Amino acid sequence: MSTIPTPYLLYLGAATDFLGLKTARGLATFAPDKCVGEWRHDECPYSVGLERLTLEQGIAARTLVIGIANPGGRMDARVVADAAAAARAGLNIAAGLHQRLRDEPELAAAAAEVGVRLFDVRDPPAGLPVGNGRPRDGRRLLTVGTDCSVGKMYATLALTAAMQARGHAADFRATGQTGILVAGEGIAIDAVVADFIAGAVETLSPARGDGGWDLIEGQGSLFHPSFAGVSTGLLHGAQADALVLCHEVGRPHLRGLPHYPVPGLAECLDANLRVAQLTSPEVRAVGVCLNTAHLDEPAARAACEAAAAELGLPATDPYRFGAEPIVLEIERCFAA
Amino acid sequence: MSTIPTPYLLYLGAATDFLGLKTARGLATFAPDKCVGEWRHDECPYSVGLERLTLEQGIAARTLVIGIANPGGRMDARVVADAAAAARAGLNIAAGLHQRLRDEPELAAAAAEVGVRLFDVRDPPAGLPVGNGRPRDGRRLLTVGTDCSVGKMYATLALTAAMQARGHAADFRATGQTGILVAGEGIAIDAVVADFIAGAVETLSPARGDGGWDLIEGQGSLFHPSFAGVSTGLLHGAQADALVLCHEVGRPHLRGLPHYPVPGLAECLDANLRVAQLTSPEVRAVGVCLNTAHLDEPAARAACEAAAAELGLPATDPYRFGAEPIVLEIERCFAA
User: Fold this and answer.
1) Binding-site residues on chain B for chain A (CB distance < 8 A)
2) Which stretches make up the D-glutamate N-acetyltransferase-like N-terminal domain (chains A, B) (predicted)?
């Protein structure tokens, strides 16, 4: 992944689902220096806060990043046509969808003709092992969530930065397409063959002996009927010492599933700890990261206070208020 | 899968792991009429009870089935060489390994040269959806286990036969390579991309309106640190009305993991019911299937009585004592 040429032009296309733009928003937030701007059509009502450019205006970029991540990860015909146009204009193309760029004949032909490359960041590495669950050295933190797209990647990146700022050796371990584009490496866990989920996480975050931490990006939710298998394998493979629960305040139901309510914080954390204990009997919760994007500041602070009181853990919106309270809890719990 | 030509010659090769022969044993037990015999080397101390044949003696078969299923599903060089010899002798080759037959150059070349076919039964169907968790019509039973390879396929096939014998419409839904070879169709759930586990099960066992039952073969165990993600997605996708817990009496530790104990029956059943409730709130346990292969008959009967007393459910070894007690419990619980 470190070979994807930058800077990026972020493609939003005609997207009308705000949550589906998380790849583009993640890059704009955590790697703005790698982005020249955003390319979106008039139908797209959202901006990720970068300069709006046409393809022609964005031609100084080296790579077009398809910044859209729909459930199931498929591209429509217009996305394919736009990507092919960008390829013909000389840009490499990168995407983190289940549907691979290389499997689109028009796109593959355009790339071959011009000599640009197609980067499918969801391709898992070859030769992954099945998990073995054997205790391994080093400290690991995993973010878990009440739902998909609640801010687990944001939280993990913010926690990594806050750990580093306080002098800890700390590495972000990306498990999703956006995180991989931000970090330059990682394994898209939801794209791994099911038998190898836990083994992929053991590979992604191997034993470390330097006293530092791996901060592993969580995926899905144990309470999401589409993706809980991924979350379960991730919990077992991560062998986490510490869990951080992530939640979007006020979300009415699970993403894409109006018939499923969002679980309560305590119920969700309890279930995650129980599953995690299989491979990490001493695992403990060290904090709550709330996504309060839809609240004003007093309401956001009140939500954090309520979560902290409910669970007896530090609670913060890491994007708005910083992740330091959770880092202090980690230091308290895991003093040498 | 129904296009795999029969009869089969079962390949045991030089296998020395009895549990790893479950594909061959399953076929010999449940589809002996489809098998001409077994081909094994002198190093293999086990028989599946069929006539021992050399390749030359087994040439009347239409297809060589690689009856070995190791963790991770890989073939060694000798297996590949033997399969290539069989292909050159005019047999089609079928296998349910993660490592695909078509990816072995020697084998692919031999098959192409002679004009025989390679059947990778673990290939998932194209275009699987993500799970949606929406309630669907029809009755479904899922077998779950304390570990891998405890007899879930055997139990599911025996339960299906017992349901049919008592006049119920009942269909076996295969989720593993052996079951697919026995049934002629199915989806190898552990070979599906992780995001689609639950969706694959929804596809495998769609809504039915005839009052009959789908009996879905379980995989792995919630307590197995390598494969619990598969088991979780299977529980959610199955949307089961009824669970049957499967267990091998006396197994000292999880398969391949001496550092992991086998969970207790009550703990295991409780965890499975809790996970299943996400998509099937009224799910209930209807029985226990014990694998008592290593016990004499009095000890086997005592083990069944002990499990029945512990859980308050009918407990049987379906292979030894039949599955009828559990079918009676299903009739009692789900009377129209």
Assistant:
1) 71-73, 98, 129-135, 189-195, 197-199, 222-223, 225-234, 236-237, 257, 259-260, 271, 274-275, 278-279
2) 59-124
- The ipTM value here is 0.87
Mean pLDDT of B324-331: 98
**What is the third-level CATH fold of A139-333?**
Rossmann fold (3.40.50)
- Flag if A71 and B234 touch (Cβ within 8 Å): no
Is the four-CA dihedral A271, A276, A281, A286 of positive or negative sign?
negative
Count CA atoms within 13 Å of residue B8 on its CB side: 30
Query: pLDDT at position A251, please?
Result: 94
Indicate the domain borders of chain B.
8-120, 139-333
Contact (CB<8Å) A227/B71: no
What's the token pair of residue A264?
């309560």
CATH topology of domain B8-120: Rossmann fold (3.40.50)
More confident call, B335 vs B244: B244
Give B-chain residues touching A259 at CB under 8 angstroms. 133-135
For A7, A165, B30, B151, B216, the CA distances from B155, given in Å and listed in that order, are 57, 56, 11, 6, 10
Contact assignment for A227 to B275 by CB distance below 8 Å: no
Separation of alpha carbons A280 and A291, rounded Å: 27
